[in-house]
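Give me the 3D structure for Prefoldin subunit 4.
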Amino acid sequence: MASKFPLLQREDERDTEVTWEDQQRINEFSKLNARYENLEDRYKREKEENEYLDDLLVDIELLDEDEPVMYKVGDVFIKLPLEDAQARVELDRAKISQRVQGLDAELSATQAKMDELKKVLYAKFGQAINLEKS
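Predicted structure for Prefoldin subunit 4 (134 residues):
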């Protein structure tokens, strides 16, 4: 009996049983996808902060060497000699660059795991499953 409202095309109407292992793969993919999105957000924020620090270093180079620089530490600003301020900004930038590289590596590893799961799940379920971002 044909359905009044077919949701899948005829080729996708296969009755594929979802096994416990399949459900575990789907759950793992879902967790990895959520993790990927969180990592991506953190990566964007850290990369933006790194760019701000790059711009700040350029701006600091244009300042007069004799004038102290107001440097924010937590919620407080302190006056620092120009060289000390440059050193602190460079140190902060190096730390953030290291975090950006770590996040990039985590993103790549997570994407690779997701790609593996996609291959397995699409091979079994075809168009009956959607693992793409909307």
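Residues 36 and 108 are 9 Å apart (CA to CA). Let me know if you want a second pass.
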